Amino acid sequence: MHYSLAVFVAAAHAHYHVPNVPRAVAEDAAPLPTLFARQQFAQPCEEVSASWSALAPESTGAVFVGAKLAYDCLNSVPVDAEGDVLVIQELKRLAQFQSNLNYMKDGTLKDGPDGVLHNEPVDILGELDAIATGVQNGTYESEFEVQFTISQLLKSGGDNHFSWRADIMDPLRFLHDRFALVSLSKDGKNLPKVYVQRDLFSAYNASSPGNFTPSAIKTIDGKSVVDYINDFATTNNGWHDADAQWNRVFVNQASNSNGEDFGSWTYPNNYVGPTTTYAFENGSTIVTENKAYIGGTADFTGVTDGSTFFAAFCQGAQKKTQTQNEARQVATSTSDVLPTPMGRYPSAAFVQSSLAFQGYYLNGTGYDKTAVLAIPDFGPKIGKGTNETVAQIETQKMVRAFFADAVSKGKEKLIIDLRGNGGGTIDVGFDLFKQLFPDQDPFGGTRYRAHEAHQLFSAAVTSALNNNTLKAMNETVYDTIEDSYGVFDYRNVRDANGSSFTSFWDYYGPYENNNDTFTSIRRYNYSNIPGGYTSGSDFNVTGYLSEAPAPPQPFKAENIILVQDGSCSSTCAIFSELVREQAGVQQIAVGGRPQYGAMQGVGGTKGANIGNYPFLVQAMTSTLQFTAEYLGESAALKLNASAVGAIAATSQLYIRSSHADEDTSISGGVNMLDNLRQHDATERPLEFYYEAADCRLFDTFKSWADVTVLWKAAYDAKWGNGTCVQGSTGDKTSISVVDNSPFNGETASQNSSGNSTEPGQSEGAASGLQSAGLSVVVAAAMGVALLML
Length: 789
Ligand SMILES: *[C@@H]1O[C@H](CO)[C@@H](O)[C@H](O)[C@H]1NC(C)=O
Ligand SMILES: *[C@@H]1O[C@H](CO)[C@@H](O)[C@H](O)[C@H]1NC(C)=O
Ligand SMILES: *[C@@H]1O[C@H](CO)[C@@H](O)[C@H](O)[C@H]1NC(C)=O
Ligand SMILES: *[C@@H]1O[C@H](CO)[C@@H](O)[C@H](O)[C@H]1NC(C)=O
Ligand SMILES: *[C@@H]1O[C@H](CO)[C@@H](O)[C@H](O)[C@H]1NC(C)=O
Ligand SMILES: *[C@@H]1O[C@H](CO)[C@@H](O)[C@H](O)[C@H]1NC(C)=O
Ligand SMILES: *[C@@H]1O[C@H](CO)[C@@H](O)[C@H](O)[C@H]1NC(C)=O
Ligand SMILES: *[C@@H]1O[C@H](CO)[C@@H](O)[C@H](O)[C@H]1NC(C)=O
Ligand SMILES: *[C@@H]1O[C@H](CO)[C@@H](O)[C@H](O)[C@H]1NC(C)=O
Ligand SMILES: *[C@@H]1O[C@H](CO)[C@@H](O)[C@H](O)[C@H]1NC(C)=O
Ligand SMILES: *[C@@H]1O[C@H](CO)[C@@H](O)[C@H](O)[C@H]1NC(C)=O
Ligand SMILES: *[C@@H]1O[C@H](CO)[C@@H](O)[C@H](O)[C@H]1NC(C)=O
Hints:
With 789 residues, this protein is α+β, with helices and mostly antiparallel strands. Residues 177-296 form the CPAF-like PDZ domain.
C-alpha cells in the first residue's frame, strides 16, 4: 500500500503575503537609473528584461523598474483563454469547500452601528462564471487583467482565508517605494492624521530629539487623504471591516516586532500610477516615482514581449537565478540566542523563540502590577535559542511560566496585545484560553459546508478509520491516516452539547441554514487526540490528557483586557470569541478610520480553519485511495466520476499558481469552517455579526515611539482615569453592554460564568431542518460505498 499523505497541519491563518521583499524602507529613495532610452524597445517587457539583465548581477535581491513600465509589460501578456477557463473551473470546484458562500451572496452583515452594509453582497460562483464568459468573449485585454479580476473577486468576499494567487502576480510587484505611512493622533483625543513614517524617525531621533515637526498629508494625487486611503484600502486589503482595512494600510508596530509589516501602502496589489503626489499641510508637495520590483527568483532571460513573459513565468515551475538564491541563504542568521522584539519595544520578561509570544511587566506607579502578553502571531515556530522542538509545547511552557511568575510577583492585571495577529495554529489559541480560564469548557462550535465532495471524503475517512483489518495490517499507515484526517471522523469530535454523535448522518446531516447545506455543529475533543488536534498528536492542550489538571486561573476575567487593531483573524478570532463570550473579557480597539465612534476589535475572517488548496486536492486523492483499497476498483471508478474525482484531477491550478512561497504547490485556499456562537439558533457565522469593542484608542506620536505608552493608555482607559475615543463606548454589540458590566467602573462585576446568551436565542445548535434531498442524491452517486456506515 502506498499512501502519500500530507499530515494535516492546523491552520487558521491569514497572513499578509509579502514574500522576499527588499528592505531599508525608511531611507530616501534612490532615483531609478535611466538605463535606456524608451524608444529603444518595441515592447515594454523587453525593456523590463533589459533592465533586469543590466542590474541583476549587482543586485542584492531585487531589481526595480518603473511601475508604469511594469504595468504595461503585464498588460501585454495575451489572455490564455483556454487555460483561464480551466483555472476557473478548478477554482469553482474547490470553492465548494468555502463555508460561507451563501452568506457572502446575501451580504448579511447589515447591522453595523450606522446601519450600513459592511460587506457588499457577492455571488462568488456566479461571478467566476461571468469572468469565464468574459475570457471567452474578449472582454479582457490581458492575462494580468483576468488574474487580477479573479483575485479581487475572492477578496471582495471579505474573508481573508479565501484567496487564489496566480503566477503572473510574482515577477513584478508594485511598490510605493520607501514611503511607509502611519496614522496618528496628536493626543489620543483628536482624530488621527496620516504621516510619512520616515518623518517620525527624524522627529523621534534620540540624537536630535524634537527639532523636526512632521506635517500631515492633506491630499494624495489631489484627492483628500482620507478618501484616497479608504479607496486604496478597499481594493487592496481583504478584511471585512472598514477600520481594519484602514489600519492594514499602515506600518504595524506589533507585526514589526516579530517580522516585517510596513503595511499595504508600501506593497500595493494594484497598479498605483506612474507617480504619487503627496501634498502636506505645511504647503509642501512631494512627487514620488512608483516602482515595481523584480522578485529575487525571477529570471527574465529570453523575455522580449508578453508571449515570452507568459512562456517564462506562467507555465509551471520557474527558472531561478543561482546568485540570488545564494544571497538569500547568506542573509540567514546563525545566532544561537533568543531574538529580541524589533522596533520600539522594551526588554521582555520572556520571548518565544520566533517572537510570536512576548511577555512584559509594566513599570511606574500605578502600572507596576500589570503584565502584558503580546501575541503578534498564533503560529509560533521554533527559532534560535531554544532546545524545544515543538513550537506549541515551547509556547505552552513559556506562557505557563510567565503567568506563574506574574502571579508570584503580585501582578493582578493582564493586557493581551493582539494587534497585527492574523491567526496561526488553532490548538495554540485553545491552549491560551485554557491557561487563562482552566475551569471553562471552550465551546468553539464550527461546521462545514455540506456538498458532494465533502460528504464522500468524510464518509471515506470514517470508513478507513473504522476498519480494524486495515489497522491490523499496517498500524503505521493507519496512524498516518488518523493524524491527517482523524478530525474529520465524526466519532472523534463532539456535538454542540459536548456529546458524541450517534451516527454519521447525525453528524453529517446535511442541515439547512440560510438556503445552503451544512454539517452539524461540531466541537473539538481535546481529551481525544484524533478529535482535538489539528496538528497531529505532538502537543496536549492545557487541562487535558498529560496537561491535566491545569494550573489555577492566573487573573480574574475583569482584570484582563484585549488590545486589538482589527487585523485579528482566524485563530485570533477564535481566541477572542472564547474569552469575550465565555469569560466576558472586554476589548479595546486601536486606530481605524479618522472618525469618532466605536470600532470592531476583530476585523478579519472569523472562519475557524483554512483549507489550503493542496490539502483539499490531497484529501480527495486519499478518498479515492481508501475507496479503491476497501471497496475495490469499481467503487473507486464510480467515485472518480463524482466531485471527488474532479478535484483529485486538479492540474491547471498547479501550473498557474504563484510560486512565491516555495512550500505551497497551489497558492491559496478556502475557509472550511464557520465559527458559531453557543445557543445562537440563527446559526449565522460570526463573520457576519458586527461586534464593537468596548472602547477605542488612537495611536499617538508617543505610542508610535514607545509601545508601552499604548499599553499604559489601555490600562488607564480600563482601570484608571484614561478616556476612550469620543463615542466609542457603550455600543449595543460590545460585550460590556451585552453582559451589562460597565467598561470602566469600580463596581463592574464581570460575568465570568459564561452567561452571555443573546435575547431570542434558545434552540440548540444544528437545529436546522434535515434536508433529505441532497443526501439521497449523493448516496445514489456513491452507490454501495456509504452502506457500511
Ligand atoms: C462578455 O461576457 C461578459 C460577462 O458575462 C458580459 O458582461 C459582456 O457583456 C460580454 N460581452 C460581449 C461582447 O459579449
Ligand atoms: C538619527 O539621525 C541621524 C542624523 O540624521 C541619523 O544618522 C540616524 O540614523 C538617526 N537615527 C535613527 C534611530 O533614526
Ligand atoms: C513639510 O512637511 C513635509 C512632511 O513632514 C516635509 O517633508 C517638508 O520638508 C516640510 N516642508 C517644509 C518647508 O518645512
Ligand atoms: C521595566 O523596567 C525594566 C528595568 O529597567 C526594563 O528592563 C523593562 O524593559 C521595563 N519594562 C517595560 C515594559 O517598560
Ligand atoms: C540547551 O541545551 C544545552 C545542552 O544541554 C544547554 O547548555 C543549554 O543551556 C540549553 N539551552 C536552553 C535555552 O535551555
Ligand atoms: C507499513 O506501510 C509503510 C508505508 O507504506 C511501510 O513502509 C511499512 O514497511 C509497512 N509496515 C508493515 C509492517 O507492513
Ligand atoms: C432562499 O432562496 C429562495 C429561492 O431562491 C429565495 O426566494 C429566498 O428568499 C431565499 N431565502 C433566504 C433565507 O435566503
Ligand atoms: C499527551 O497525553 C497523553 C495521555 O496522557 C500522553 O500519552 C502523551 O504522551 C501526551 N503527549 C505529549 C506530547 O505530551
Ligand atoms: C477494510 O480494509 C481491508 C484492507 O484494506 C479491506 O479488504 C476491507 O474490505 C475493508 N473492510 C471494510 C468493511 O471496508
Ligand atoms: C490620571 O492619574 C494619574 C495618576 O494618578 C495622574 O498622574 C494623571 O494626571 C491623571 N490624569 C488625568 C487625565 O486625570
Ligand atoms: C444570566 O443572565 C440573566 C440575565 O441577566 C439572568 O436572569 C440569569 O439568571 C443568568 N444565568 C446564569 C446562569 O447566571
Ligand atoms: C443539545 O441539548 C438540547 C437540550 O437538551 C437539545 O434540545 C438539543 O437538541 C441538543 N443538541 C444536540 C446537537 O444534540
